[in-house]
Amino acid sequence: MQDMEKQEAQTAQQDPQSLDAAAANAAEQAAPAQPTLEDKLAAAEARAAEMQDAFLRARAEGENIRRRAQEDIAKAHKFAIEGFAESLLAVKDSLEMALKIENASLESLKEGVDMTLKQLTSAFEKNKLQEVSPQAGDKLDPMKHQAVSAVPAEQEANTVVAVLQKGYMISERLLRPALVTVAQGK
Question: Global pTM?
Fold first, then answer.
């Protein structure tokens, strides 16, 4: 050991730069390696590239979801009436069968029309199509009724006297108002 120290001392006297290099080399071996700025920059660039890739993938997924939702909405609009049309097919079939019957009696025609009306009523109920048919004496509701005329009557003003045509609502939305005559003010 003493020989090594003597040798290092002689080397230091001969070449001071060698001593600095040896000291730096010894310090590098003793201390843990610190990342250089270049290493930190490369790591940050890799992380930024990774984040950009994740962002682009998320953006593409969002676009795909939006496109699929638009397609679903378009299909819903296009085929929204499908259930109602399907329930009306039986009504049409019944009417066509009634027209094919030759020598039909008045009684059989009435019976067929009655059965067809029941099918139509069933189709309306199934598809939430409800009648608006106020009774005589009901208060005029401008959201559901349309007054065609006012007539003198023995009841309170602005109440329904007669229904000229039924109205219809589909799921709480007015499709057609009921046409009514109302009582005049006295």
Answer: 0.57
Helix or strand or coil: residue 168? strand
Of the listed ranges 30-44, 131-145, 146-160, the one predicted with least confidence: 30-44
| CA–CA distance, 92 with 82 (Å, rounded to integer) | 15
Residue with token string 């006295």: 186
pLDDT in tens, 46-63: 999 999 999 999 999 999
Measuring CA to CA, how many Å separate 116 from each of 46, 92, 107? 74, 9, 14
E-assigned strands of the chain? 129-132, 145-151, 160-165, 167-170, 173-176, 178-183
Distance CA 167, CA 143 (A): 11
Place of tokens 């559901």: 144
Give the strand pairing for 178-183 and 145-151.
parallel
Spatial distance between the Cα atoms of 145 and 12, rounded to a whole number of angstroms: 112
Q: φ and ψ at 138, to 5 degrees?
A: -70, 145
The SS3 of residue 186 is coil
143 φ, ψ to 5°?
Answer: -85, -15
162: β partners: 181
